User: Fold this.
Amino acid sequence: MTAVELFILEKEGEQQKILDRLHNLLSSFPEITSKIRYKIPFYYHKSWICYLNPTKDGGIELAFTRGNELSNEQGLLDSKGRKQVYGISFHSSREIDEDLVAEVFQEALILDEEIPYASKRKK
Assistant:
């Protein structure tokens, strides 16, 4: 069992169902690896693509680290006032439209593959 799977099993109720469903969807992409970083699951290819963040209100946010660079044609992404990270919040596993989430994830994966991430932090 992986560290991410253990993380999911430690959650309860709807959070666990949402995490499990999203983890299975994201892990279905063969080039993706998952790791626990900053105490939550992150999904990688060449760099960080997204992470699953449990929220205080009992939901889960699927947050894309380069969300500001995605098209958001599906209208799912919300910046919540952040400049770079955009996410999709779920409070029930029934809210997850796997086709639309996979579409956003596929775009993020292409971005990661074709345009290397360059940190904008001052050195």
